[in-house]
C-alpha cells in the first residue's frame, strides 16, 4: 500500500504548492475510520481509497480531488458523518465525498425503469461537480483491477455495469485510456476465452512477422526526420476488446482484420501536425473514408486530433493520430484537464473544456426525453456515438451522431422544424429522409404546414432528441385511440374477476397508482405502459392473485377477436404474451398477430381497415410460443450440450436449431425455443447471458419471413 509520504511526493511532483498537511490528515483520518475493515482479498480496506487517490494523482488532479478519493467511502462505510468531514476538511470536500457516496449507492444494473431514474441521478450529481464522477471512475477502475477476489456472479454483474455505463462515460469525458482499460478488464471477466484467443493470435503474429510496431515506427521516424519535423512518435497494438469489437462489427476473423496497430505523433504546434499528415500521406497510401479532422472540428469534450488510416508494410492498415502536446494533454485526461496542475499552478490549456459548460450541454440534450425509455435511449446514444458535422444553408455547424439522417438534423435545429419536415436537400440535391449524413455536407430542410411526424420516422431517426419528439407527437395523436382501447381492456379485465369498471373504480385505481386521472390510467393501459393486471391488483389484490393461477387455453390466448375468428402469430416478429400486439386481417386466413414494434407493420399503414386492436388474455399461458434466439458460443467440447441444458433448466423446449456460421473459435447458431410469455423469454435469455461460453445473445426477428402484404391467401404450406 502506498504510504502517506509516497502519495504526497507523487502530488508534489506536479504541484509543489500542494497542501501536504491536508492530504496527510485525510490519509490518517481515512486509515483510522477503516481500521478493522478488509476487502474480499483479505487486504486492509484502506488500501483501496489510497489506490484511487494514486490513480487521480497520476492524472495530476487538485488537492480537493485527492482528499476526496482518500475519504470517498468514509461517510458510507464508517462511523464518520457528513458534519464531521465538513468540520475537519471543509464543506467543499464534504460535498464531494457525499456526492461520491450517492453515486456509489445507485443500483445502475437494475430494471430499465430504475436504471433510467438512476441515470438521471448520476447526471444530476455530475452536473454539480464533475470531480465526483472522476473519483467514481477511478474507484471503479481500481475495483475492476482487483475484481478477481469477488464471487463469479458478482464479477459478471460489475463487469456488465462497467461495460454499459462507466467505460462509455469515461470515453464521453475524453478519458480514452480509462475507457479502454475498463472495457478490457470487463472483457476479461465476461468473455475470457475470446480475450485469451486474441492474445494468443497476437503472440503467433509476432513470432511470424517480428515486431511490427518497431518496424513501422522506424519507417515513420525516418520520414519525419527527412522532412525536418520535430515530433514524438509512439506505436502500440490495440487492446484485445477493441480488436474483438472490430471482429464483430466487420464479421471478420483475426487473420483478415487490419488496422490492429495504432500510432500517435505528438508535435510542437498545429502547423507541424498538418505537415506530418502530408508526409505520411506522401509515403503511404491513405485508406478512403478513414480520415477525420478533429482539430478543425473538435469533439464536445475538447478532444482535438487528426485521424488517418494508411496501408503500411505488406498492405497492413495502421491508424495514425496526429496532435499537438496541448491537444495530447486534453486527449489523455479529457474534461479532467480543467483541474490539472503542473509546477504548482493550474494548467492553462486553451483546449481544455469548461466542465460546467460541457455537462450543461450534455444534460440539455438528455432532458429532451419524455419517459424512461426515451431517456435511456438518449443516454446510450450520447455515450456511444461518434459525431459528424453538417452545415445549415447559413453556414452554421450542427453536430450529430454518426449515422444521423436529415430528420435528426431537422430536430437538432428545432422541434417545430423537425415536426414539419417533408423532405431534405443535401449539397443542393433532393434526398430521401433516410439518407445517412456525412461530414461537411450542407443540409436544407423542406417543411410544410400541417405535417406531423410519421411512425416510420422512429426507425429512420438515430438521435434521442428526434426519437423523443417523434414519440411525443405520436403519443398525443394516439391518445384518444389509447383511451378507447384502455377502456375496453379494463372492462374485460374487471369482468374476468367479477367486477365492473365504473368511473369511481377507475378514479380510485388511478389515485392508488399515483396517476393524475382515470383518463390518464386508460391512456397508459392502451399504450401498454401499464397492464390490466396492475390495475386489478391495485383495487382487488386477492382477486388478481387468484386469477393468476388460471391457465389460458391456446385458442383463447388473444382477446379482441370477433366470434369464430382465428389467429396466428406473425413469423417475422414472433410476439409472445406480455408484449403489446396488434392484428392484421387476411382474407380467408383470419388475423395475424404482430408485435406493435414490428417493422412489417409499416406496409399496412395505408390499410387501416385491416388493423385490429388486440391484447393477450390475462393468466398463465402454455409454453407453445416459439421464439428464435441468435447465439454466439465458444467452439469447445460440451458447450452446445451445456446451452441445451440451460434452456431445459428454465422449463423451455428447443424445437429447432440452425448453424448460421462456424469459425475456429466460435459458432453462431439460431435456436427456436417454445416459451410461455415475455417473462419466460427474459429468464431464458438471462440464464444464457450469464453463461461464460455465450459471447452474445439476442432475439432474432426476420422481416423477410413476413406474410404477403395483400389480402390474397398465402400459397398452401406458406
TrEMBL record:
Residues 692-718 are annotated as: Disordered. Keywords: Kinase, Transferase. In eubacteria ppGpp (guanosine 3'-diphosphate 5'-diphosphate) is a mediator of the stringent response that coordinates a variety of cellular activities in response to changes in nutritional abundance. Residues 692-704 have a biased composition (Basic and acidic residues). It is an enzyme of class 2 (transferase). It comes from Limimaricola soesokkakensis. Residues 382-447 form the TGS domain. Residues 45-144 form the HD domain. InterPro entries: ACT-like_dom_sf, ACT_dom, Beta-grasp_dom_sf, HD/PDEase_dom, HD_domain, NT_sf, RelA/Spo_fam, RelA/SpoT_AH_RIS. Belongs to the relA/spoT family. Its EC number is 2.7.6.5. This is GTP pyrophosphokinase rsh. SMART domains: HDc, RelA_SpoT. Residues 628-702 form the ACT domain. One of its GO terms (molecular function) is kinase activity. It catalyses: GTP + ATP = guanosine 3'-diphosphate 5'-triphosphate + AMP. One of its GO terms (biological process) is guanosine tetraphosphate metabolic process. GO terms for cellular component: plasma membrane.
